[in-house]
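Case 545 in the screening queue. Each case pairs one protein sequence with one candidate compound; here the compound is pyridoxal-5'-phosphate. For every case the pipeline is the same: read the inputs, emit a complex structure as tokens, and attach any notable structural observations.

Predict complex for case 545.
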Amino acid sequence: MSVEKRTQSIDLSHHLSELSKARLTSPLKGLMKYFEQPGILSLAGGLPSPAYFPVSDISANVLVPESFALTPTESSTSLSWLWKLFGSHNATKERTQAVTIPKYPAVKGDISLADSLQYGPAVAQAQLQEFLKHFISEVYRPAFEDWTVLIDTGNTDGWSRAVMTLCNPGEGVLCEEWTYPSAMASMIPFNIQPVPVAMDGLGMKSDDLENLLSRWDPVSRQMPRPHVMYIVPVGQNPSGSTMSVARKKQIYDICVKYDVIIVEDDPYYFLQLGTYTFKDDRSPSATPSGKPSADESERYVSTLTPSFLNFDYQGRVIRLDTFSKTIAPGSRLGWFTCNPVFAERLERQGETSAQSPCGFGQSVITKILTHWTYDGYIRWLRGLRTEYQQRRDFFIDCLAEEFHLHAVPAVAGVWEGCIMYQASSKVKKSTGMTEKYSARNRTMFSFVPPVAGMFVWMRLHLDQHPSFAPGDRDTLETKLWTKLGENGVLFGPGWMFAANAMAENPDDNDSGHFRISFSNVEFADLKKAVTIFGRVIREFFQEDL
Ligand SMILES: Cc1ncc(COP(=O)(O)O)c(C=O)c1O
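Case 545 output:
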């Protein structure tokens, strides 16, 4: 179906869980429409008087949207390393603008603390609703017309509400074979089990999904065929893969065929970093103007891989967005985009717990967004992308300095279809040990530079360890992880990210994994961590344990 032709969502209410169907409208929330009537004399709710809110205004100095450059700030000469190690961001002075949110604004329609700090509509404060609607229609362009926006306290909250709204105990949820552990943790205690689908370099494999669903046997599986999918299609956590448009369309069509709801958890959407190029092969790109503008926004948005929403002509996608990676995780603010029936049930689910995200955070974020405007926010996102791209590049440059990297096409497993780098020791004449080791030319680990997100997923070739025996994977992974910890470097241990024991496909049986985040450590510390990692892993692969 053409994505240009927009349709109404179809009735998907049969997907609602028993718990969700049993939820009544909160008695007071049902009266909200009267509360909002201009001039109404409301003596109904337990609303405190704003006169007693102890904050008369909130002021903030907000960075300008063009704070971060759109291309790496200096060319990739060998000096750039020194600049990153010793200069970095602190050298540049922040440019800020002051914004204020008064309790009672002079201009009608401006954000008011009297409203923001009051019990309010769970869907979002009016100005935020308006901003998000415009943002979604410009950036994601859903293929169905009646999409609805509902705010939440971030994607963790969004996913756990989706689970409760859609799944019954005893059911399974389709997910990537390696996935975000917190997402699994929010469903497993309710006896809702992960059903892993194999991955390749583009994320979840559509042929495996089709096979799994077409051959589903509820008796041997001891659960009905799954009707919900949890997926992280951009900068997948942990593998770093990003799904192509063609793969997304295939997955969407399979979900239509087997009536599956797709929950698209997409916190890294705006960290689409592009392909990694070795330091010496990088050429400085032309410097764009860097000023927010409608043309620049449109051009940039068109370079982003489309969301599942863009193919969703039935309204079977629940998209989860968050400000955690684009503004700050402590804001605890995000939103659902989905069909109105699901949105209404998700709202009911939320109003018996948090009710709505914190009014302080909501008003400050809304103020920043409306102050920047849509084009300013897009400009901010573009700057962030370049910042994380530089961190990714620097981290992989450090690996390339420390190890010998050999590029090979991956023919199977989670990197199938990608160029993978196999890392072995570099010959260092000064140390007898390294020389002896490198003579054996063992691959100690391999990885694919991520094209999005914050992580490098590293596969450890534990079968190359002198004391390796089949079945030793977890023990050796933990031993190396512990040694690194003892030497002051912490990586994410790979076992945490397996959707469940079924994730052990034969290809990966003899390898361990680490998830390494390059997003939050200063350049000098990234370099230090790679040097320590180099020493520890070389020693580890020498040892007969
Ligand atoms: C895939 C994925 N989903 C959700 C989250 C958490 O998002 P939020 O802070 O919005 O709850 C993360 C954070 O690391 C993540 O990687």
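Case 545 observations:
- The longest helix spans residues 359-402.
- Residues 434-439 have pLDDT under 50 and may be disordered.
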